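Why does residue order matter? Because the sequence determines the fold. Keep that principle in mind as you read this record.
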Amino acid sequence: SGYWWGLGAAIYIGGTLQYFNATSSLLLYNPGRSTAFLHNSCVTKSGTSCSVNAYLRLNNTKVFLSHLGISHWGSRVELIGVEAHDTQRSAQVFGEAWVTNMLVICRTAHVPVRHCTSGCKGSELAYFQGEFVGFTWYDTGQRHIVTNSTFRNCDGTRVSTCTSSCRNSAVWNLLTHSDQFIPEFMQTT
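Structure:
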């Protein structure tokens, strides 16, 4: 995943597919944050309001050999027992997220086979030479809790196929803004 689109994930939850208008057979896909059904999921309603919000839960899920392991664009998600092996980024989630018992092995002993020898596209080179990250804290106004999780081999200096660009690899990656005009609510962890 991520070969044609840098945000493509092995498991991608988000976006909407809808008709252009009521009389059209043309379908339009928006891959981003237009997922009202993910934002408004409710377990218990009190009249017209929601008293207990629903979370999408992924249990014991394994992703591997991908640019981005899991991408979730909704408001609430639980990642329980997720494993990510040989990914550029294990997960990128929005809204309220609980991540527990996650195992991320940024690079295993697996030596990937390059399918291009010259004229490689950026996405082809990124996997082999680009930086990799254990977990991405992305966007403003997010609330993530990460507990009981293990990250291994996320140090680019210890990976033999790594070039200078992946020497900056790390367990955590955070979205940054100007140090002068920081949004009021960035991240709660």
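The first helix runs from residue 36 to 39.
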